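Why do we care about 3D structure at all? Because function follows from shape, and shape follows, mostly, from sequence. That is the central idea of this module. The next example makes it concrete: a single protein chain, its amino acid sequence, and then its structure expressed as tokens.
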Amino acid sequence: MNPSHRSSPDSDAAIRVRALEAILTEKGLIDPKALDALVDTYETKIGPRNGAKVVARAWADPAYKQRLLTDATAAINELGYSGLQGEDMVVLENTSEVHNVVVCTLCSCYPWPTLGLPPVWYKSAPYRARVVSEPRSVLKEFGTELPETVEVRTWDTTAELRYLVLPERPPGTEQMTEAQLAELVTRDSMIGVTRAVKP
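And the structure:
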């Protein structure tokens, strides 16, 4: 499973969206490049930045981390990130012994307030099936190789409950500010398919 793999059967909604986009483009009402840039902004910059701030605060503030692991919804709300698709949150902490990864096997439930738009691969049938049956292989395809001594846990998001992975804090970051720490956190590390970026 290649994370950039995008060839999955299109849903009726996806086909309609593309048809509408083509008509609006043809009439000169939208610029496809501007639309792509807008989607990319929400998919990789704005949305995941909220979650990155949550992770950075947990790394920098042990009391906040404890609140986050005890009642994630309330702790995330402390930073102003709540709303539809983020009402009931659970945070899963990655450690040197346990690596958590998140999937929604039935559809594509996803914590929008903290992670923004879901990536295409997250919604794909191959990811949804394989990360449950062969998580180590999927993680390896994302560049995440774990020792056999590390337990891999796959968590299935539901319509009622969303998960956010708290990645391990990279070594050598003890003197970094929260803002600097947030730059090390990616959307993929909060889903659990990768680790946080090393400084």
